[in-house]
Amino acid sequence: MAVDRKPSVSLYAILARDARVGVVFRRGPSKQVLLLLWRTDTDQFYEGQWFKGRIYERRCDLSPSGARLIYFAAKYKAPYATWTAVSRPPFLTAVAFWPKGDAWGGGGLFAKENEILLNHRPDEMKMAEGFQLPKFVVVKPLGDYSGRGEDNPIRAQRLIRDGWKMIQRGNAKEQKRGSPIWFTIDPAEIWAKPRPQDGKTYEIREKLMGIKERNGSWYMIEHVIVNTKSGDEFSLGRTDWADWCHSGDLLYAKEGQLYRLGFDRRNLRPLEQAELLIDLKDRVFDPTEAPDGAKRWGGDFQFSEG
Q1: Of 235, 264, 268, which is closest to residue 250 (Cα–Cα)?
Q2: Is residue 215 over pLDDT 80?
Q3: pTM of structure
Q4: Less Cβ crowding at N or C end of the chain, within 10 Å?
């Protein structure tokens, strides 16, 4: 008898540098993505638009204020196979749109609130017909890397900018056809980010152990929390994402849920005391129209709490 499998749900967040907000990409099934806005000071969530297609969340970025999101998306059909766009979170309706055509490169970074570094080739820098940026917005190519790579270089440059450092390079090995995972990474690729609020006593370590797991995640990731003074460490297990909140709390995502783990004075609380912030496993596609204000670079709009 056939068994109905619920699609796996993965979450990925990006936190704004200068504001207490972030965005959450909820993916599942694989070609359905919901964007949410997250007020990290109050843990309010605002559910925005769904997208039918693929959003490459690791090639995305938030402006310093969190007011705009640059993202790379694909439908792989006419009129645009792939593109990079800017939207107003929690909505995905484009206020700027650059057609691309393939998945080599794509995406971008906000160097400043109104300065975009676009990861497109020179002949892909023209905006689509009907789109025009305000005169004060500057768009530049992503330096020597422009138009190159897949999730990197966007992912790596954003991590470094936001306080992460690669402390171990991984060694990827392609597995035989039919294997449960496409690439194993041994030793793992490890990135680390110290907790700024406590003199760097604690740090998150993100371990990438494999790529493209059959019936599972694209990235096999484990997050480990390390006390660099005592040497103690504990694992969060298989996780999608983790980072330090502006408040100093630990934030992390696994199995379609977002968690917060705080501190008692300078010591991280036990993992079993983590607070479940939101459970997004059971969300289903629901088409939503962006308000008029979210369809303009500087428009005003309001959104309802999810």
Answers
A1: 268
A2: no
A3: 0.94
A4: N
- Euclidean distance between CA atoms 118 and 76, whole angstroms: 20
| pLDDT tens for each residue of 263-300 | 988 889 999 999 999 999 999 999 999 999 999 998 88
Beta pairing class for 233-238 and 219-227: antiparallel
Q: Which residues pair with 233 in a beta bridge?
A: 226
Beta bridge partners of 23: 14, 37
List, for residues 157-174, the tens digit of each pLDDT value: 999 999 999 999 999 898
The full DSSP string for the chain is ---PPPPP-EEEEEE-SSSSEEEEEEE-STTEEEEEEEETTTTEEEEEEEEESEE-GGG-EE-TTSS-EEEEEEEEETTEEEEEEEE-TT----SEEEE--SSSS--EEEEETTEEEE---GGG-SPPTT----TT-EEEE-GGGTT--SSTTHHHHHHHHTT-EEEE---EEEPPTT-SEEEEEEEEEEEEEE-GGGTT-EEEEEEEEEEEETTS-SEEEEEEEEETTT--EEEEEE-SEEEE-TTS-EEEEETTEEEEE-EETTEEPPGGGPEEEEE-TT------PPPGGGGSTT--------
CB 283 within 8 A of CB 24: no
Q: Residue 144 corresponds to which tokens in the numbers above? A: 């020597």
**How many whole angstroms separate alpha carbon 98 and alpha carbon 57?**
17
pLDDT of residue 3: 42
